[in-house]
UniProtKB/TrEMBL annotation, chain A:
Protein name: Carbon monoxide dehydrogenase
UniProt key word Signal: no
Lineage top rank: taxon: Bacteria
PANTHER family attached to this UniProt entry: XANTHINE DEHYDROGENASE SUBUNIT C-RELATED (PTHR42659:SF2)
Keyword Flavoprotein: yes
Keywords assigned by UniProt, alphabetized: FAD, Flavoprotein, Oxidoreductase
Domain FAD-binding PCMH-type: 1-169
TM annotation in the entry: none
InterPro entries xrefs: CO_DH_flav_C, CO_DH_flav_C_dom_sf, Diverse_Substr_Oxidored, FAD-bd_PCMH, FAD-bd_PCMH-like_sf, FAD-bd_PCMH_sub1, FAD-bd_PCMH_sub2, Mopterin_DH_FAD-bd
One Gene Ontology term of the molecular function aspect: FAD binding
From TrEMBL, chain B:
NCBIfam families: pucD
Superkingdom field: Bacteria
Protein name: Oxidoreductase
GO molecular function annotation: iron ion binding; oxidoreductase activity
């Protein structure tokens, strides 16, 4: 195995162009597990740790430009207000040691349906900035996940930055695992209210071949909120609306039975999380609940 | 023995001297290796290192049951850096099997594999990665055979036999060759007693396969010696038992296999069987070079036995005033492909199957099966754990049916000193079962809704789901549950259970120093601390050196069955007493004429001096021992004898000592998501005498947590169609984190057992028994669900199986 150590972003792009099978490695919290268990033996590892810009973030007018290697710990500590859903998701990632190393770029690169960041990115709304020697492009998060552990990257492209919409309303994130910390997702759910556009967005993790949005559930809720004038009157959402939203989220899931849980349970659990999160976010929106910050 | 020069590898344990002015028995002296372990400086067996060493790699079967059609090692052998590739055909001696009780386990598979992950071939290479790659180049052709995975498939008329042509000592009395051992326990007349019952409850219980999940994977280093023998440095639970199994397959006399215990990263029963010991020695002797083998976590799941999964059918009756009338139980343990400790586990499950209760009319049957599932054997609690899970669920069911409080119902039927076991054995030392239950119940309950904070929202760390943020209190219901259990201490059923201690007392630099040398495997239980405490108490010294455990001294027996403080602690005490007598003899010889008390008084060694029982100082130890040879004594110590259980009735004084613990579990259950947070696990246990109170509490808290693990998350999942393990990693075999570990208040009773050294009672296992059923009872209390299987998965709580 060859270990490539580019000193700059340009060198990294050149290396990736020259060796398209090279596997990028930053925190190594995912790649190294695969290598240690001998599930994967790439010809080249492309070490991105010398590239400073991948560890930087910038809070803009509408977006947070999050470097692919910004560790989860930094997101939890510094971006709780701007990215509350992702900050909550970051809290659920593995252990403190892993959170100090791992970043969103790794989750996106692996594109496992069980990656903790995905539901939060889907719910917030995001674009993934990827680049190659041919140039750069923005891939909408909805189009990023193309199959089980597959994404929309071309072989010569690297993930540079994730442009995530700054929260304009409450966001929530939950993950079910069979232990109270340091656990891989049995399933996960994220919800973001977007009062500026009077829409909601969702993200489901580990309950379909890829991370997905529950689009019918979103449409239903968007219509119900609009129809009842809820965005303006701030009334409590009726239990029947919440239930139907939850049922539609469950229906959107397309899970499997595996060693971590049954399909039936996953379908059930994402619905419960959806109903609860609608309650939490709506309470926040009405101003009676907790602050906007995504602190667990 | 031939002259033999040893090159000492890096990481070899050395003498550890502990110097405490105080620190006799009853004091909480600290572990000599504690700081080293916490700071990462302690040398575990996986840290052993030798110049020129090779790395060994095991190739394991990818299928559970198959004939081996062919093995082609040529490509592996041709790999650069490979020194040896061994298969069954390379085994050097007539003996090619090993085993704790029954020698049914092939060192390397011979013509057939019987479980997923069975060792088939070995490679030694100059780099671990080379060894791994070479092993992957060995071509094995399997012809798969149908798998036997449960009682129905094992005992079906056309069932394949896991072991053909059995001739072991149990083969004559078992009803089927796929049953390793069967033990009935029959007492009184169940048919008659059932007529007196006003209520009868039945239950079918399923206990999942738990792993010991010790953190230091199997590892060791074998160094070939000039005399044709081998020096083996290894993490194990019982050096001499290993030795007895290793030497015959190497074709060496036992004195040419010299074993030294290296740093052990936990055991819990999982190191009682051989893992890499023989393999490393074979490779070392073949190559003439030191060979190190270290399993990774994945391989470790295949490298040791697990706790027997069990199906248990229980029927209890009681009168309307709450007295048990009878018990009928059938316990089916899955022993997997090889016997390991299955026969003894059967003995425990059956003889302890009634629990710590008075019940005169009993019919219990326990069997262990041979199947193609992973082999199962010793794990903390050893057969008593599975039974406790079932009988405690039954106690709650009976109490509910009678409309009685579950604790009061148990107290009403609790055994006490003088009670007859279903085996006919009298419980002849304190059995404070009712008192332990009273104590855990009397504790104030933890406050409700602890997740509520003054300012912001919920503290999710105090809620089911923890940091995963699944609830802020929605769907959360509290439950409280109780359980109590009974465990035996020491090896039972007529086993000649003994331990050996050598103690040397001498003056070094004017100070008396005791050296304690045993073969006891320190696996975390605290023997290294306790032995020094005993030596201080008995010999009146402050400095005690603990010599590394090795086979140059007699057997210490196993570090299991809650027995080491009793047995090797007892041996150290016993030997110290003999050393003291020798010291006093020397004193009398040297000084007897100076003071009449030398001849007349009861003399003690205290504070480095010989004193009379009246406190008068006769001499210093330094003066007595000055100019003398070191006083050096090695003695064996035995507990009182036991007898085997009768094969038809199970009658017999089969156990040495009984030990009891009780738990109260308080849980919060997210009833919608099926997630559980255990808030508190209050424990009460009788320890006879706490030789080191801090260690005692640590053992009780650790055992309690291991019981919690199997209640809510721990299970090796085996595919019933293929008998293959589905989750051999810490990603999918979950063990409790600190966020899953509740507050564990511990109430320690010290009621002496007059038969035992210092009156002590073995403590390591009892808390693992009752913790699991207490948590289950609490979850049932919160949810109203029946829950007859452990671990409780979210699916079982939400109807989504």
């Amino acid at each position: 195995m060859d270990f490539l150590r580019p000193a700059s972003w340009e060198e990294a792009l050149a290396a990736k162009a020259e060796h398209p099978t090279a596997v990028p490695i930053a925190g190594g919290t995912d790649v190294m597990v695969e290598i240690n268990f001998d599930h994967r033996r790439p010809a080249y590892l492309l070490d991105l740790n010398r590239i400073e810009l991948l560890r930087e973030w910038e809070v803009g007018e509408e977006n947070v430009r999050l470097g692919a290697s910004v560790p989860y710990t930094q997101i939890m500590e510094n971006l709780r207000t701007e990215l509350p859903g992702l900050a909550l998701a970051s809290h659920t990632v593995a252990s403190p040691q892993i959170r100090n190393r791992g970043g969103v770029g790794g989750n996106l690169g692996t594109a496992s349906p069980a990656g903790d960041a995905h539901p939060a990115l889907l719910a917030a709304g995001a674009e993934v900035e990827v680049e190659s020697v041919r140039g750069s492009r923005l891939i909408p998060i909805d189009a990023f996940y193309t199959g089980v552990k597959r994404n929309a990257l071309q072989p010569d492209e690297l993930i540079k930055t994730v442009h995530i919409k700054k929260a304009d309303g409450p966001q929530q994130y939950s993950k079910v695992g069979t232990r109270n910390a340091m656990v891989i997702a049995v399933c996960a759910f994220g919800l973001a209210l977007h009062p500026e556009t009077r829409t909601v967005r969702t993200g489901i993790g580990s309950a379909a071949p890829t991370p997905i949005r529950a689009k019918e559930a979103e449409s239903f809720l968007n219509a119900a909120l609009e129809e009842g004038g809820f965005w303006d009157n701030g009334k409590i959402i009726t239990p029947s609306v919440a239930k139907q939203f939850a049922d539609l989220v469950s229906a959107a899931a397309n899970p499997i039975d595996d060693v971590r849980g049954t399909a039936k349970y996953r379908r059930h659990a994402v619905g419960i999380m959806a109903r609860r999160q609608l309650g939490w976010t709506w309470e926040q929106y009405r101003g009676t609940g907790r602050t906007l910050e995504g602190a667990a | 023995m031939a002259q033999h020069t040893r090159t000492v590898p890096a990481g070899t344990p050395t003498d550890v001297t502990q110097n405490h002015v105080k620190g006799g028995i009853g004091e909480s002296t600290l572990r000599p290796d504690g700081t080293l372990k916490v700071t990462g400086e302690f040398a575990y067996s996986s840290d052993m290192w030798h110049e020129d060493m090779l790395w060994g790699q095991t190739l394991r079967s990818t299928v559970a049951h198959a004939e081996i059609v062919s093995i082609d090692t040529s490509e592996a052998l041709a790999t650069s850096g490979v020194y040896a590739v061994l298969t069954y055909d390379d085994l050097p001696a007539a003996m090619k099997n090993y085993g704790l009780e029954i020698q049914d386990t092939p060192v390397l598979a011979h013509g057939k594999v019987r479980h997923h992950g069975e060792p088939v071939a070995l490679v030694a290479a100059d780099h671990p990665e080379t060894a791994r790659r070479a092993a992957a180049k060995i071509r094995i052709e399997y012809r798969e055979l149908p798998v036997v995975t449960d009682e129905a498939s094992a005992l079906a008329p056309d069932a394949p036999l896991v072991h053909e042509g059995r001739d072991d000592h149990h083969s004559g009395h078992v009803p089927h060759p796929n049953i390793v051992h069967r033990q009935p326990i029959v007492r009184g007349n169940v048919a008659e007693a059932r007529k007196r019952a006003d209520v009868i409850v039945e239950g079918e219980y399923v206990f999942g396969m738990q792993d010991q999940a010790f953190l230091g994977p199997e590892s060791g280093l074998a160094v070939p010696a000039e005399d044709g023998g081998v020096d083996l440095y290894v993490a194990t639970q019982w050096l001499h038992s290993d030795l007895k199994q290793i030497a015959p397959v190497l074709g060496l006399p036992e004195d040419k296999v010299r074993m030294t215990l290296s740093g052990v990263g936990g055991a819990f029963g999982g190191r009682e069987d051989i893992s890499m010991q023989i393999h490393a020695c074979l490779l070392a002797l073949r190559t003439g070079k030191p060979v190190k083998i270290v399993y990774n976590r994945f391989e470790s799941f295949f490298g040791h036995v697990h706790r027997h999964p069990a199906k248990l059918h229980y029927e209890h009756g009681a009168t309307k005033d709450g007295k048990l009338t009878h018990l009928k139980a059938r316990i089916v343990l899955d022993g997997g492909a090889y016997a390991s400790a299955s026969p003894a586990v059967v003995g425990n499950a059956s003889s302890l199957g009634a629990g710590p209760y008075v019940v005169d009319d009993v019919e219990i049957e326990a069997v262990a099966l041979y199947t193609n599932n992973p082999p199962c054997g010793a794990m903390r609690g050893f057969g008593a754990v599975q039974a406790c899970f079932a009988y405690e669920a039954q106690m709650d069911k009976l109490a509910a049916k009678l409309g009685m409080d579950p604790v009061e119902f148990r107290r009403l039927n609790a055994m006490e000193q003088g009670t007859l076991m279903p085996t006919g054995q009298v419980v002849d030392s304190p059995a404070p079962v009712a008192e332990l239950l009273r104590r855990v119940k009397a504790r104030p309950l933890p406050p409700e809704r602890q997740w509520e904070t003054a300012g912001e929202g919920a503290d999710v760390r105090a809620l089911p789901g923890g940091l995963s943020n699944t609830t802020h209190g929605e769907g959360v219901v509290r439950g409280v549950g109780y359980a109590v259990g009974i465990k035996n201490v020491g090896f039972s059923e007529g086993f000649d259970d003994y331990s050996t201690a050598r103690v040397v007392l001498q003056v070094i630099n004017g100070e008396p120093v005791a050296m304690v040398h045993t073969a006891m495997a320190e696996v975390g239980q605290g023997g290294v601390t306790v032995h020094a405490q005993i030596a201080r108490t008995e010999l009146g010294v402050t400095q005690v050196t603990i010599h590394p455990a090795d086979t140059q001294v007699g057997s210490a027996g196993s570090t299991s069955a809650s027995r080491q403080t009793y047995m090797t602690g007892g041996a150290v005490k016993n030997t110290c007493e003999a050393v003291r007598e020798k010291v006093l003899e020397i004193g009398r010889r040297k000084n007897g004429s100076y003071h009449p008390a030398w001849a007349t008084a009861e003399l003690l060694l205290e504070g480095g001096k010989v004193v009379t029982d009246g406190g008068e100082v006769l001499a210093t130890l330094a003066d007595v021992l000055e100019g003398e040879e070191p006083v050096d004594v090695e003695l064996e110590f035995r507990h009182r004898p036991t007898v085997p259980f009768d094969l038809r009735t199970g009658q017999g004084d089969g156990h040495v000592q009984y030990t009891f613990a009780a738990h109260r579990a308080v849980v919060e259950v997210d009833t919608e998501l099926g997630l559980v947070k255990v808030i508190e696990l209050a424990t009460a246990q009788d320890v006879g005498k706490a030789l080191n109170p801090l260690s005692v509490v640590g053992q009780i808290q650790g055992g309690t947590t291991q019981g919690l693990g199997v209640a809510v998350m721990e299970e090796i999942i085996v595919d019933p169609k293929t008998a293959k393990v589905r989750n051999p990693s810490f990603t999918d075999y979950l063990i409790p984190t600190i966020l899953d570990t509740p507050t564990i208040p511990v109430d320690v009773l010290e009621l002496a057992d007059d038969n035992a050294p210092y009156g002590l009672r073995g403590i390591g296992e009892a808390p693992t028994l009752s913790s699991t059923p207490a948590v289950l009872a609490a979850i049932r209390n919160a949810t109203g669900l029946e829950l007859n299987k452990t671990p409780v998965r979210p699916e079982a709580l939400t109807g989504t199986l």
